[in-house]
């Protein structure tokens, strides 16, 4: 089920009934209308109702932060279970995930990518005959078989039952949300109707007006709106007129702001996604106190939405577009883009500078939340200055390599390295970063090319700043290339040189990555002192409060123990590594640790647990376009032996079923399963198992909710999680699974 806003859904009964009928007969429906007409809210409610009625899956894909048509398919893939980011075509993954059965895909805010969305929708509908798509857009897609549904304004006049109209009901609901003491008196009812009529029954306009009822009476507010919109009341219902109507509503809200608030509104329009206070202060070019005061007023006026728990803010798309126009009219837009770029460059630089320390988890979390803005900043840099683009790209190295954005990083590497010009000072770090990303995805050829170019540039310009650090990195990544190529002897020499140079430069932090890899290489060579290097990295990481390198050092020590047949030691350290790394959630590190734990389990006595761990690892490898074989033939050999003994023990069918179950665990569930010393009966929780039993018994979600004294929405969530965890698409599959694994076969011992 699609997550809906917690605010009350008001009205739209007629539209929901019409959409229900259309969804039963049409495969492509596009909800059209102006921004603020309530297209997204209506689409999600209709999709959830249809999915529950039909017993099918539905998925929601927001496109408002996707500004590059080339990333459209990837954005859709990311919104699906496992959010694939593999090097293969995202369209192929979408088809695989959605499968052959019936499903409903909601594509939200398509207008800025209309041609690309139309092409993708056409391909998806051709590839999956049972797929239906519900799109929201200011324009229809113009595809064969498309049913365009114009979202009308809310009803304004009183209903025949004496109940308030939809528009008035929404006004009251939102006014009461802003002030619980608000009551619509009989005397003010007609004024409320006129207020909603002046606002053309548009939900966004009504919500903006409702926020003003904390300080203005309905008659006063209605009177002001009436005088302000007199010239627009008689406008046609064409697209242009509807935009003018919405613009009038936003104009009104804008004019009620002070000059300082208006300027901040224009400044904030540079953000394409959520932003924090520091970013707002940076683009505004004003003091924090001034920004806080103006921002608070914009929030109270419903111009800015606030997530106070997350400390982030967001502008509705219509509000953002309006602010952008104002900024462009005032000649502020180039300056805002420059400030935006400069701010996120500082953010990236600071993240790199402070990476080896206790704040890694917060750094990664912050950059993940800022992903849309980082891409916006990169786009600005690419269009303005090669050095700026190279610098920002390399400054985001940990965002790409550790944050889980390898495919995006590779795409940006190709783009920025193709730019003309650029100084060696900025191009070399970009080449080194690109090398790392290539190696993590197994592209040894391109990685070697980048290394060679970086080496040549450094030789041509010997007096470069940071030349000592470049030398450390050249040796480190040549060593990684050798290790991944299956040449541990050559890797050993390169890692030792990198460590020596780092220590000589007084940079023990820069030695750690080579140290844990040196232990890996020496373990492959069965050297007796293999653990020494990783132990040194571990001591330094612990001393400075660093977690990422600490977890990888523990993993390399676990690998060394595994190779030496110390299975207990290997398991203990691998679990410790996963626990240490929690919060950073490095997909590469997680996968290495899950793999190793599966090998340990298989080496003892192959069990269902081995297969589940392998499935969990495989799903994360696919998300980042990588694989265990990327890390060298020695690692691939351990993996292959594990698979062989598990399949021999369990059988091919059971192995595939358990792999699927493991693959449907989300990252946190996979880690929890891996570090747990308990042996749960299934990959499901106790409550999920209980719900599965009721599905087997033929109970509907509503009947299950009544039996368990839970809400239907809660049961919907449980059913959805069961489907995801087990890799199923229907309730029938859940019933069959329960019958075969629980009811008849007994508990699955893992």
Descriptive account of the structure:
It is a single chain. This protein is mainly α and 750 residues long. Among the domains are: 13-150, 3-Layer(aba) Sandwich (Rossmann fold); 166-252, no CATH class; 257-331, Orthogonal Bundle (Arc Repressor Mutant, subunit A), CATH 1.10.10; 357-465, Serine Threonine Protein Phosphatase 5, Tetratricopeptide repeat (Alpha Horseshoe); 678-750, Orthogonal Bundle (Arc Repressor Mutant, subunit A), CATH 1.10.10.10. It is 65% helix and 5% strand. It contains 37 helices and eight strands. The strands form two sheets. The protein has a five-stranded parallel beta sheet with strand order 2-3-4-1-5, with helices on both faces. It has a three-stranded antiparallel beta sheet with strand order 6-8-7. A hairpin with a 4-residue loop joins strand 7 and strand 8 (312-315). Helix 3 packs parallel to helix 4. The longest helix has 21 residues, at 333-353. The chain is globular, with a radius of gyration of 29 Å. The two termini are 30 Å apart. Residues 226-245 and 743-750 have low confidence and may be disordered.
Distance between the termini: 30 Å
Mean pLDDT comes to: 86
Provide the β-strand percentage band.
5-15%
Identify the CATH class of the domain at 13-150. Answer: Alpha Beta
Radius of gyration: 29 Å
CATH fold type of the domain at 13-150: Rossmann fold
- Got a strand count? 8
Task: For the largest sheet, list the strands in their spatial order.
Answer: 2-3-4-1-5
- Can you identify the CATH superfamily of the domain at 13-150? P-loop containing nucleotide triphosphate hydrolases
Sequence stretches where pLDDT stays below 50 over 5 or more residues: 226-245, 743-750
Helix count from the secondary structure assignment: 37
Looking at the overall shape, the CATH architecture of the domain at 13-150 is 3-Layer(aba) Sandwich
Largest sheet: 5 strands, parallel
Helix content: 55-70%
Q: What would you call the structural class?
A: mainly alpha
Q: How would the global form be characterised?
A: globular
């Amino acid at each position: 089920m699609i997550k809906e806003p917690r605010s009350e859904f008001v009205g739209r009964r007629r539209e929901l009934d019409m959409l229900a009928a259309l969804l039963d007969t049409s495969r492509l429906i596009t909800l059209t209308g102006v921004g603020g007409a309530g297209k997204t809210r209506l689409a999600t409610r209709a999709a959830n109702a249809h999915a529950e009625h039909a017993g099918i899956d539905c998925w929601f894909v927001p496109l408002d932060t996707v500004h590059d048509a080339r990333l459209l398919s990837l954005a859709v893939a990311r919104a699906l279970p496992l959010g694939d980011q593999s090097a293969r075509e995202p369209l192929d993954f979408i088809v695989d995930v959605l499968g052959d059965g019936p499903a409903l895909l909601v594509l939200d805010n398509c207008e800025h990518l209309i041609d690309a969305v139309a092409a993708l929708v056409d391909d998806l509908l051709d590839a999956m005959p049972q797929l239906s798509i519900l799109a929201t857009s200011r324009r229809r897609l113009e595809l064969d078989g498309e049913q365009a549904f114009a979202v009308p304004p809310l009803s304004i006049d009183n209903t025949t039952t004496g109940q308030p109209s939809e528009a008035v009901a929404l006004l009251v609901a939102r006014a009461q949300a802003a002030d619980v003491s608000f009551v619509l008196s009989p005397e003010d009812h007609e004024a409320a109707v006129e207020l909603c009529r002046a606002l053309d029954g548009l939900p966004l306009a009504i919500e903006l007006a409702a926020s003003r009822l904390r300080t203005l009476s309905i008659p006063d507010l209605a009177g002001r709106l009436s005088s302000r919109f007199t010239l627009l009341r008689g406008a046609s219902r064409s697209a242009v007129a509807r935009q003018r109507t919405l613009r009038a509503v936003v104009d009104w809200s804008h004019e009620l702001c002070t000059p300082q608030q208006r300027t901040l509104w224009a400044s904030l329009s540079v953000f394409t996604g959520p932003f924090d206070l520091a970013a707002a202060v940076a683009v505004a070019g004003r003091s924090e106190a001034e920004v806080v005061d103006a921002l608070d007023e914009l929030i109270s006026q419903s111009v800015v939405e606030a997530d106070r728990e997350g400390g982030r803010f967001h502008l509705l798309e219509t509000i953002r577009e309006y602010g952008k126009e104002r900024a462009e009219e005032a000649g502020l837009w180039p300056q805002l883009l420059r400030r935006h770029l400069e701010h996120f460059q500082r953010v990236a630089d600071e993240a790199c500078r402070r990476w080896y320390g206790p704040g890694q988890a917060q750094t990664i979390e912050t950059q993940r939340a800022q992903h849309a803005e980082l891409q916006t900043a990169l786009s600005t840099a690419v269009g303005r200055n090669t050095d700026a683009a190279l610098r920002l790209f390399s400054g985001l190295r940990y965002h790409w390599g550790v944050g889980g954005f390898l495919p995006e990083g590779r795409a940006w590497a190709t783009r920025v390295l193709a730019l003309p010009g650029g100084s060696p000072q900025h191009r070399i770090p970009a080449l080194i970063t690109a090398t790392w990303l290539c190696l993590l995805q197994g592209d040894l050829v391109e990685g070697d090319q980048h290394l060679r170019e970086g080496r040549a540039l450094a030789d041509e310009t010997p007096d470069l700043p940071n030349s000592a650090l470049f030398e450390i990195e050249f040796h480190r990544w040549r060593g990684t290339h050798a290790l991944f190529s299956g040449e541990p002897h050559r890797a050993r020499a390169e890692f030792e040189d990198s460590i020596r140079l780092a220590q000589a430069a007084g940079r023990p932090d820069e030695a750690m990555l080579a140290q844990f890899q040196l232990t890996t290489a020496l373990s492959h060579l069965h050297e007796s002192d293999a653990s020494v290097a990783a132990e040194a990295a571990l001591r330094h990481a612990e001393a400075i409060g660093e977690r990422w390198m600490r977890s990888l050092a523990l993993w390399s020590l676990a690998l060394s123990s595994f190779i030496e047949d110390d299975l207990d030691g290997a398991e203990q350290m691998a679990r410790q590594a996963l626990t240490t790394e929690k919060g950073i959630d490095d997909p590469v590190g997680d996968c290495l640790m899950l793999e190793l734990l599966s090998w340990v389990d298989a080496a003892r006595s192959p069990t269902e647990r081995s297969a589940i761990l392998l499935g969990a690892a495989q799903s994360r490898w696919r998300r980042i376009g990588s694989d265990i074989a990327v890390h060298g033939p020695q690692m691939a050999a351990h993996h292959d032996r594990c698979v062989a003994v598990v399949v021999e023990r369990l059988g091919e069918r059971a192995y595939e079923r358990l792999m699927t179950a493991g693959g449907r665990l989300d990252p946190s569930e996979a880690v929890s399963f891996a570090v747990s010393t308990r042996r749960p009966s299934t990959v499901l929780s106790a409550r999920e198992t209980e719900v599965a039993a009721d599905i087997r018994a033929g109970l509907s979600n509503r009947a299950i909710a009544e039996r368990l004294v839970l809400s239907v929405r809660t049961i919907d969530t449980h059913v959805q999680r069961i489907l995801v965890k087990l890799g199923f698409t229907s309730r029938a599959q859940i019933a069959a699974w329960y019958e075969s694994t629980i009811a008849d076969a007994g508990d699955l011992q893992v």
